[in-house]
């Protein structure tokens, strides 16, 4: 159960946010009421109401009436009647005051039972604010709330025997910032994080797979090389008279068993020998002597080809650098010889001596380059090279 909840927690949170967001959405009501006084029509219109949470969001109109025989017009009694004129056959809207010790649902249902098309609840006391009413169970009766000032004004008109007509229009949809932007942002962020996580998992798995595959391939190559090396090692049988059978005889370092006559042993390149059946699996996995750690692949030259090729390339590169530096030194000496010469014969002698020096230096350099090790194997190479230049110059 816990694992299911953790796996579906993002979806549950997203659903909860969507549900909460839909509950926080409210619709305003544009209220237009008008009346006739002294043969003149007066009225007022504005976004002054809010539809209830459980109210249908639709347009209604009708004559505004008050609860009958009540001082505060709260319509809390079940048998409340309303001041609907006997001659009126059209739709009517009940104007009810908030409070009186009953719920919004009771007020609205009492008016709906008497035939009200809609119910307008105005705030009581000095409260002029409006809010979204909660009135479950009122079915298809439209219900809005308006402020105390407008509600009291309309009540006074009706009590003065002035008929007030009202039209309730659907206003604008309002909601908190989270309703409009956060749900989209959270949804996009959730999918981006999920995609990034899945992408990283795929990349990491592919990388691990490639590493494992490379390691397996390397192990197979090493085992193949180990088999080749094992086949090149000597094998002999222990015979009567061998020193290993004497009182001071040795034991196999792998199985710790003393050698016996006719035992088959394998002799490694380091001259250590062991039981053939003991050392072969050992060499196949480790490729080294159990006693001195001598690597049979390197000893037999099986795994040294790549290293030798890298060393040869490094030596060739160093030789070219030495030759290039030597030629530059010879050119400088050649220019100095020309600038100090006073006659053609002397120039010829100088030139001859310079070329002899080039020949000697080149030979020395070439001879030296053969024994030169790469930089990584000879850290003092650079200082030795500088000393050689100083001696030759």
TrEMBL record:
Topological type in the membrane: Single-pass membrane protein
Gene Ontology MF annotations: zinc ion binding
Entry-linked InterPro entries: PA_dom_sf, PA_domain, Znf_RING, Znf_RING/FYVE/PHD
Localization: Membrane
One GO location term (cellular component): membrane
Chain spans, region Disordered: 325-350
Domain RING-type: 252-293
Origin superkingdom: Eukaryota
This protein's UniProt keywords: Membrane, Metal-binding, Signal, Transmembrane, Transmembrane helix, Zinc, Zinc-finger
Predominant localisation class: membrane
Residues of the signal peptide: 1-23
Annotated transmembrane regions: 181-203
Name used for this protein in its record: RING-type domain-containing protein
Source species taxonomy: Eukaryota, Metazoa, Chordata, Craniata, Vertebrata
